[in-house]
Write a structure and sequence with these properties.
396 residues; alpha+beta; nine-stranded mixed sheet; 12 helices; 19 strands; binds (2S)-amino(hydroxy)ethanoic acid; binds manganese (II) ion
Amino acid sequence: MAVVDASRFLADLYHLRGFGRVGTGVIRPAYSAPDIEARDWLAGRMAEAGLVPQFDAMGNLFGLAEGPSLLLGSHSDTQPTGGWLDGALGVIAALEVARASRESGGPAISVVSFQDEEGRFGGTTGSAVWSGALALADADAVADTDGVILGEARKVLGSRIGPDVNPRQFTGFIELHIEQGPALDAAGEQIGVVSDIVGYREMMVTLTGQQNHAGTTPMALRRDAFQGLSRFAVRLEDRMRNVVTPQSVWTIGHVAVAPNAASIVPGQVRFSMQWRDGDKDRLARMRCVIEAVLADVAGEMELGLEIGPLMVLEPVAMDRALRKRLEAAAEAVAPGRWRLMPSGALHDATNVARLMPVAMLFVPSIGGISHAFEEDTAEADLVAGLRVLARAAGVT
Ligand code: HGY
Ligand code: MN
Ligand code: MN
């Protein structure tokens, strides 16, 4: 008989959805009002569960058990137009397992909701600072796409900020997350045990041409920055074929055209260039192709080219012993309906792996949709993920 309380778990999950809810989705970016309100509510639920809530300087919120403990959790911030389960599922499941363990005299379980996993200020920023991958002073200098710097944004934490949380109190970290891809849903499977998390690179690129009149400037005389981006994107598609596999991905997700007016030839575009792969060497080869095509296009079209700092997360394999516990738990909860699979999405677990053994498990995303208001998972699958997490954590 599982000691976790599925109704209580689902009630809290739906309650968390209410902070920043817009229709079926959620808008709860790091340090926004709904994000802070959600974290204050989570801190209260942690205290009610007998855990000691503690914010660190980044706004990572921990619910600490006494003594050595297994850490469970994820993040509660969302993409600018986010799904209601991305991150939230792992935080609430962790809370429920920690509560159930205390109620049943089980092992010590601590809980965490990392801050800015969704990268308003980069990517997995809160866990990157906590794990030592990124200095707080460097994180503070990062600006979001509206020009707000993290050091300013996190001032909303005010007196919540407590002492740093020592990672040595934790014996390991397990993160439950939605798959955010199509594999489990398409196969009718319920659980994914993660083998490894892909690596990622991201940089901001600026192409600068000549702003001009859209009616009087002959096509042959234009230095149109948007046309430069367009030519880059099309040529990149072709040139990447030489170095990638079907699992490699690259995305131009954020584009700012200046001055962004119908009758003005764009003088400048600033865009995000992001790519991911499971192999570190292939990530490097993809970078060479990207920078070569950028240089070619800028040269051909007489455009200025500026490439910003490179953000890096390396591919990481999950801890074998923790993964085996997840595999056994998956077979017990969803016999024959689970698989071992890589994660194409990034997660805080990548940073936490610098400090301790980590492992992850997935539940299906309906239609494989995520980072969108349509993101959803069947309740039965949410509860199955909770039960696998509890079992792997020794809470049964
Ligand atoms: O982009 C990612 O993979 C994560 O969901 N932020
Ligand atoms: Mn996530
Ligand atoms: Mn996400």
